[in-house]
Amino acid sequence: MKNLTRTLLLTLAAVFTFELAGCGAADIQSAKLYRQRRDYNQADKMLQRALNEDPTNDEAWYLYTVNLYDLKNYEKVAQIIDTAMLYSATHRSELQQYKRSIWVELYMGGLNTYQANPESPEARKAAIGYLESARKLAPEQPETYELLGTIYYSGGDTAKGIENYVAEIDQVSASYDQGIAMGLMLHMSPEALERAIGGTPAQKRIVSIGGNDSSMIYIYPSKTAYAYFEKNVKPPFAWQLTGWRITQMEVEGLVPLRVSTQAYEVVANDYYQKGLVAMAHNDKGIATSYFDKAVPLLMTLQQLDPTDEFASTAIPDIYMRQEKTEKAKQEYERILGEHPSKQMYVSYGTLMMKSQDYQGAVGAYEKALALDPGFPSALYDIAAAYKNWAKASQEAKKPEYKQQLDKSTEYFERLHALDKNDVSVLVQLAENYDVLGRKDKAIALVTDMEAMKNTDAANSHDYWEMLARLYARANRSADSEAAYKKADELKQKGK
User: Fold this and answer.
1) How far, in Å, are 65, 128, 323, 329 from residue 340 at the CA level?
2) pLDDT attached to residue 407
């Protein structure tokens, strides 16, 4: 009897142990049934019970993550996804896809919440909540830091804004620098990219990027490079480079990424402005420390996007304030030797102009025009360089000033032929004609100026003052007086 009792107790214990061991599996099966009925809340309870029973259960972690996704509890997924991927080895690739999808949901949640009411502190706070979860979920995504930086900045928290922009730069700098080393820069054409990178891509793909927009991907496996093109929104609607990735992961490379210069511009400008304040207080040591932080960011910014006007003006200004013209020349010559660009030549010319090296400036602008003979910025700047050179020569009583002013006039005339509505060019031409004694040429400008009376240019007092002077040269005193009166009216209105 004693043996029978012991056997019965052992049997009951074994059954009880089996039932306990099977409890987690039963909860998972129940969760699956609830999910089939789309009762995700009950499924969530079952899966939490299963994980309490066995915190290492592969299938439970996978289903728990998927169920949270279906519940749209993305913030919770952000908290548990790494643990789920640790224990759910057989479903790791699927979880990676969910992770990407959830990051998109969180990022778009933050973006849409902020854009719906950017002036609202409550909206900014809610958006930051989404984005902080997105950052925790996928800390390698630079877009999260940029949007966080924008929101913090817009709310007046400059320190937090800069912190996130710096984090973004840390994320993207290696890939951006690798692209620059290959000769890549924003806005370049597919043909220009092929020349820079050395040959046609192994593959070309067109992928949707939302709505009716698409991206063309150039794939260079030997360089682990993926280049992304989008159609220009303005005529001639050609493909232009908007971004790139340097990665060995094809699944990542096939997701277009726009190269953004916003973080570089904001952080560089922060250092630049702080440097200017320090200079104003005559604290050259502090100013130098800020300027030294700004310049590398500005150089990278200009290499990424040579059309960036802030970089092209701030770099020469900083070097001139620091009296480091020779160092600036060396840096520009190094960059231009590696990757010539018309915009960089214009920026280099600006540096030469600021140091009154007119011949050097003209040489830089000529190289820009050799790359693009119709580049308006280079045409205007070379015309201005020759004009300033002529003024300096005239003051030094050197006879070559007329030859230099002739060259200035030639370039301004080329600009005028490209855009007859540019008042600033007309003003420069009229002044040149005056000095050169070409009264007939100056009077001929009246027709071009009068043709602009119904354009936006006529809303400026500068326009009417210029027209008044031209009328005076043409001996049209009544018209001149009326034009001066109109100019005074616009001045009073602040136009």
Assistant:
1) 51, 41, 25, 14
2) 95
